[in-house]
Design brief:
The protein is mainly alpha-helical. The protein contains 4 helices and no strands.
Length: 157
């Protein structure tokens, strides 16, 4: 249980660092100056690229918040609880669909003539979110199996 508490604190710190990093990008780089990743009008989505990146950041942040809630549930109720499994599944689907959606959009950006090395790096990051979603979904399925075994064991006694 101590490892779960450490993971819980680490995830909270990661969410805080994510917020700080996002605010730093927003304030320090200066989005109005055109230094943002996809602001060029020549790209396929034009000025909407900024809003699409903001939406992805918001979705990832929501996934982090759901992960924190899941870990909080694990700390309070134990690993094999239905609430922890449900929250882990939600976080897994958020990360998976965010990765899939952004991979598709970045492939469109690449085909439309974006800077290939930068976009390929971003596509690899999107694949990381797909992989993260799969891993969280697998862990959620393992928690469901454990919950069922625990329930059967409690009924047997």
């Amino acid at each position: 249980m101590k490892k779960i508490k450490i993971l819980y604190v680490t995830t909270i710190l990661m969410a805080i660092m994510y917020i700080i990093g996002y605010l730093t990008t927003f304030i320090v780089i200066g989005r109005a100056s055109g230094n943002y990743v996809y602001t060029g009008k020549e790209l396929v989505f034009g000025s909407y690229n900024i809003y699409m990146n903001d939406a992805q950041s918001l979705i990832i942040f929501i996934g982090l918040i759901v992960s924190i809630l899941s870990l909080k549930s694990i700390v309070k109720e134990g690993y094999f609880s239905i609430n922890a499994k449900r929250l882990m599944s939600i976080a897994g689907y958020i990360f998976f669909f965010s990765g899939v959606l952004m991979t598709i959009l970045d492939i469109v950006r690449l085909k439309s003539g974006g800077e290939s090395l930068t976009i390929i790096y971003i596509i690899l990051m999107d694949f990381m979110f797909i992989l993260l979603g799969f891993i969280v979904l697998i862990i959620a399925d393992m928690a469901q199996t454990g919950y069922q075994l625990k329930s059967e064991n409690d009924l047997t006694i």
